[in-house]
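Annex B, item 7. Sequence and structure tokens for protein A, then protein B.
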Amino acid sequence: MSAQTIASFTSDVLTIEVADHVATLWLDRPEKRNAMGLAFWEDLPLAMESISNDPSVRAVIIAARGPHFSVGLDLVAMAGIGSVPESADGSRPSAATRARSSHKQIVRMQASITAVADCPLPVIAAIQGYCIGGGVDLVSACDIRLASADAVFSVREAKVAIVADVGSLQRLPAIIGNGHLAELAYTGKDIDAARAEAIGLVNAVSADAESVVADARTMAGEIAANSPLAVQGTKAVLVACADRSVAEGLDYVATWNAAFLASDDLTEAMTAFMEKRPATFTGN
């Protein structure tokens, strides 16, 4: 199978725009408040593959059309997904069979969100309006989160009698800490953008939806202006060192950097410094 490319990517619920080395992945189902149905879960990893495979892209923004980032799982569209039909004699599948089927569907959904976390490029979430349930799963897989002043966040699953199972409980402890996560997950409460910023869920709050996308583009542009080798290397080192001791992490980054000291980007950085001009990096 050939690699998915941006030019060949199509979806009814996601669109991709590329400009100035920045890819913007739009959640594009505003009429349903970007609820996450089957097409979303199938198309998200393909979108991330196409973006990751484009050598011109140096940073990624995940944003949303309409007034809301996402209200999470499309409960109507996803009803019955993973269920097992009755057998020919009309008998109901066993509990074990139903559990295996549900497990497979959950694992597929987890893999969709993990495709965002596994992107080798920095990923910035630009969030407005509701960011509920699966929306929080999605933004927790991003490297940086920005929000508009009207953003509302909720790890809502306990209110609908399920356990959050697509990444929030696993990724948010490193972002907001166990105490804040426990409060959000146990209560299912809504929090506003100011509280989200205070607990570290978002880096900054912008005035409105238009502003948060503009601010995300400014930040992505700052990232894209740096050496892509260094930026992607930094992300790789951060990921690799998350579960290592300081000593192990230092050894890892020393080995990593030793392999890239002969890069054209490093030569360009030194030359630009001596010539007192901005560097122009190629990623080589």
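Protein B:
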Amino acid sequence: MPRTTPDWSPESEEDYEFARRQLKKRFAQWRATVGAAVERDAGETPIHYKWAFLDGHLTRWTREDLDDVYLELHPAKVIVDDDDLTDVLDEAKTFIRFLDETGLLDPHSDSPDVLVDHLDAIEEQFRHNMADASRYSFGKRMWMTAQSEGVRLDDRASIDAFIADFNARPLAQRDAILGPGLPPRPRATGRFTPPGTPPKARSTKRRKRRR
């Protein structure tokens, strides 16, 4: 029988995809109701990173979760123009408000007011971390180089041509961009996480990693 009720703490990739689609659909409907712009990718970032890198519970949020997503994972993995950084945190605040007003925010979460206030409190640190190149992952360095050379990240042929060209460059040139000791022949894999970089592949076994 087809699923009718999503599991907000899914155990499998299939259950996650169903929950993700349902949550984004509800988010879009709520945004329309409150007069907010309905954007196709709204909610994708917090939902994806909660599943792929944190505890996997899509509607349970704490201040620690927000720190992980916006002070660690975003600086490492996501490419965002400086002018759009405020929009990133505004989306997070709107997502928290949506979960609260629709009754979806898990009762083991921090209170919505605490979560929103915390996003305000970390904005300066978020901006600092996003500008700190030492935090950039291998993948982010790769895609930033591609973008700087005019590669469109939504164009597979353009990406493949860039990777082939990059792999043919002298090792010293590649190391200057990505850092020494990194794999010499990177591959573009995984789905993109708009507006940033391809996420790390998720293990088939559910990970519940907390810091």
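Comment on protein B: Confidence is low (pLDDT under 50) at residues 181-211.
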